[in-house]
Amino acid sequence: MINPFTDEYFMKKALQEAEMAFEKGEIPVGAVIVIDNKVIARSHNLTELLHDVTAHAEMQSITAAANYLGGKYLMGCTLYVTLEPCQMCAGALYWSQISRIVYGATDENRGFAKMGTQLHPKTTVVSGIMANEASELMKRFFAEKRK
Ligand SMILES: [Zn+2]
Predict the structure, then answer these.
(1) Residues 104, 90: Cα–Cα separation, whole Å
(2) Distance between CA 69 and CA 63 in Å, rounded?
(3) Which residues surround ligand 1, an ion (CB under 5 A)?
(4) What are phi and psi of 41, to 5 degrees?
(5) Is 89 annotated as a binding residue?
């Protein structure tokens, strides 16, 4: 039996969320949080709609997952996000003690790695999963904005 629950499988769900952000005119970033192969939170960037610079996809998913689990820590969870988290989200992920972060495209300007933000020592990171799809969506968004 091939395990259907690959990182690509869940990243596709995060990309679907990013598409929803795109359709709303938001910078297209999507996220899902998974525990035991079950999606317990899904969200996309809503900073324009909510007039809230903290409404990044990751921040909303962290809150939703903690609500679902009934506790503030996300040990045992994996976050899938289409774009490398910024330093705000990396900071929140630090506090959540999330076990794994899987992201798609690298954010050369505002990614946490560039900013030198530390993740929790127990958090493992995988990058580049469906990175092309994620960055194509971003490019398409900014190209349409310029029109
Ligand atoms: Zn962020």
Answers:
(1) 15
(2) 10
(3) 56, 86, 88-89
(4) -155, 140
(5) yes
For 28-53, how does the pLDDT look when each residue is reduced to its tens digit (9 = 90+)?
A: 999 999 999 999 999 999 999 999 99
User: What is d(CA 132, CA 147) in angstroms, rounded to the nearest whole number?
Assistant: 23
Q: Is 120 annotated as a binding residue?
A: no
User: Known catalytic residue: 84?
Assistant: no
pTM score of the predicted model: 0.96
Q: Which amino acid is at 102?
A: V
Cα 38 to middle of ligand 1, angstroms? 23
CB atoms within 10 A of CB 50: 12
Which residues have CB under 8 Å from 101's CB, separation 6+?
A: 78, 79, 81, 85, 93, 119, 123, 124, 125, 126
Which of 17, 26, 58, 133 is an active site residue?
58
User: Separation of 13 CA from ligand 1 center, angstroms?
Assistant: 18
Q: Catalogue all structural domains in the chain, each as residue range(s) with its CATH number.
A: 7-142 (3.40.140.10)
